[in-house]
Design brief:
The structure holds two protein chains of two kinds.
Chain A (H helix, E strand, L loop, with lengths): L1 H20 L1 H38 L2 E5 L5 H13 L3 E7 L1 H11 L4 H6 L8 E6 L5 H10 L4 E5 L2 H43 L1 H9 L4 H41 L9 H30 L3
Helix pairs in contact in A: 1-9, 2-7, 2-9, 2-10, 7-9, 7-10, 9-10
Chain B lengths: L1 E9 L5 E10 L4 E5 L6 H8 L7 E6 L2 E2 L8 H5 L2 E5 L10 H11 L5 H13 L15 H13 L5 E5 L7 H16 L3 E5 L3 H7 L2 E6 L2 E6 L7
Parallel strand pairs in B: 3-8, 3-9, 6-7, 7-8
Antiparallel strand pairs in B: 1-2, 1-4, 4-5, 9-10
The chains are: A alpha+beta, B alpha/beta.
Chain lengths: ~300, ~230
């Protein structure tokens, strides 16, 4: 037990000493990691906001399928039941001819004469969809248009939704590309820092190996160093993130009030925790790669 | 204690360092390994602590076939075999005591009890009063004695030395060899590769001569030139 503790103490001590001796590189790696993670956080926040917008707009934009007067009611019910099971579909509502007329009358009640002229009710019944995921709207609309024996026509306010979806897709693609590039840079910098640390201590490593130190005893300090760099960089990024968010979010919400920016604390907290984990993982992987490549123990 | 069976080692450049070598060294023996440079002495020593592996044949150390053990078991082997080099391989940033302690720290064995082993090892090599000196403040002989203290501090049953007097003057060489003889008398098996004719001829122990990768002489109480 004490031997295990001794080993642990030695590994931690060696790691800290190594980081300190190599402090310029260590600082560079920490800063790189922090910048990478702040960018990752910003991207995630923007993406989250865009997704909120798409969803919010999607909820408002119903798909309306107008039912033919001669359509069989049982067929309409069956279709509605089927629609309710579809992924991305939120709510399915049947609007009868009478309901439609009432809505029409309420909306155009200052033009009563127009309504009075109508002998019979010319408005069709309709099936209205509220979407959870607007992305499935176009496909669904085409499908319903194909059911000509049931529906007269299908109306979809596609424009705004489609544009938002494409913006969101572009932002996601650009953000992903940037994250991959930045992660690669952070990995590279950490791996290089560890490589230099390995090189600086090659004599020590050779002797350790020759006198019977285990692989993990030799590798341990370097792995800890990488993980430590990732962790410190991530902690800095998380602090920056929380400060920025607390400062900026209220202002942004005030200026652009329609933006459904995620202002709640739990979102920021989760993001911060996620960032710290990513930093730790990137640091560990970076050092592991270097240790595997440059530390032939 | 140490057994080689039909060991052949060919380096990638085609050099046949060892060619079908078989030999056996008993417990507590003191053996000189002689022969011209490039004859395969260093290769033989490196085989014993699994610093390299043969292309064919087997090497046994204390009944363990070291040519077959897994990577994970290599540290265990090396903790049983102390090695001394011509260039000492001391860490320049550490003083004498720390260099010796480093072995125990590298294996997580350093504690109050093993700290006394360090004292004993330093006393044996007569460096107790220079324990806080760094390698650059020591003579070659003192550096080699530090390396010997490091090799024996864990009380390894086997000590192998690769030209330990190669960089030392006459007096320091004799100090070193007397130390190795003493360690042998204390119970360790010692295998020493050397070019030092005078030492081999004076000490008169078992001599194994290698030339062109083959054992050409194995003589108890032999001299350098047979």
């Amino acid at each position: 037990m004490t031997a295990k503790l001794n080993v642990l103490r030695y590994i931690l001590g060696a790691a800290m000493l190594g980081l300190w001796r190599n402090r310029t590189m260590t600082l560079g790696a920490v800063v790189t990691t922090a910048v990478m993670l702040v960018t990752l956080a910003a991207f995630l926040a923007i993406n989250d906001t865009l997704n909120e917008m798409v969803t919010a707009l999607g909820r408002k934009s119903n798909l309306i399928a107008y039912v033919r007067d001669d359509a069989r009611p049982s067929r309409v019910t069956a279709i509605m039941q089927d629609l309710e099971q579809r992924p991305g579909v939120g709510e399915v509502v049947f609007v009868t001819k009478e309901d439609a007329l009432r809505v029409f009358q309420e909306r155009f009640f200052d033009q009563r004469d127009v309504i009075d002229i109508l002998q019979a009710n010319p408005l069709p019944a309709s099936v209205e969809l509220r979407m959870d995921d607007p992305a499935v709207l176009p496909g669904l609309a085409d499908e319903l248009r194909g059911l000509t024996e049931v529906f007269e026509s299908v109306a979809v306010p596609l424009d705004v939704v489609e544009r938002l979806i494409s913006i969101s897709n572009v932002s996601r693609a650009a953000g992903t590309a940037m994250i991959i590039a930045l992660t690669a840079v952070a990995l590279f910098v950490i791996a290089n820092t560890i490589r230099i640390a390995v090189y600086a201590r090659r004599q020590e490593i050779e002797i350790m190996k020759l006198v019977g130190a285990t692989d993990w005893f030799v590798r341990g300090p370097f792995l800890i160093e990488g993980a430590f760099i990732g962790l410190v960089g991530a902690t800095l990024a998380a602090i920056a993130l929380v400060v920025l968010y607390l400062q900026a979010a209220p202002t942004v919400t005030r200026i652009i009030s329609f933006l459904p920016i995620a202002t709640d604390v739990s979102f920021v907290r989760n993001l911060a925790v996620f960032i710290v984990l990513v930093g730790l993982v990137v640091g560990s992987i970076g050092s592991y790669v270097s240790v595997r490549r440059y530390l032939a123990v | 204690m140490i057994v080689l069976q039909n060991v052949t080692k060919v380096y990638p450049n085609g050099t046949r360092a060892l060619d079908d070598v078989s030999l056996q060294i008993e417990e507590r023996e003191f053996v000189f390994l002689v022969g011209p440079s490039g004859a395969g002495k260093t290769t033989l020593i490196r085989l014993i602590n699994r610093d390299t592996r043969p292309d064919s044949g087997s090497v046994f150390v204390e009944n363990t076939e070291v040519t077959r053990i897994s990577r994970r078991q290599v540290p265990k082997l090396r903790r049983r075999v102390g090695v001394i080099y011509q260039d000492y391989k001391l860490l320049p940033g550490l003083n004498v005591r720390q260099n010796v302690e480093f072995v125990l720290k590298s294996t997580g064995e350093f504690n109050g009890r093993t700290s006394r082993w360090v004292d004993e090892a330093l006393a044996l090599v007569q460096l107790s009063d220079r324990a806080d000196h760094h390698p650059h403040e020591l003579s070659g002989g003192e550096q080699q004695r530090t390396a010997i203290a490091r090799a024996i501090v864990r009380r390894c049953p086997i000590l192998v030395a690769d030209e330990p007097t190669g960089n030392l003057d006459h007096a320091a060489s004799w100090d070193t060899i007397q130390l190795l003889v003493r360690i042998n008398a204390l119970g360790a098996t010692v295998l020493m590769a050397t070019h030092n004719r005078e030492i081999v001829n004076t000490i008169r122990r078992r001599v194994i001569e290698i030339a062109n990768g083959k054992v050409v002489r194995d003589e108890l109480g032999g001299g350098y030139d047979g």
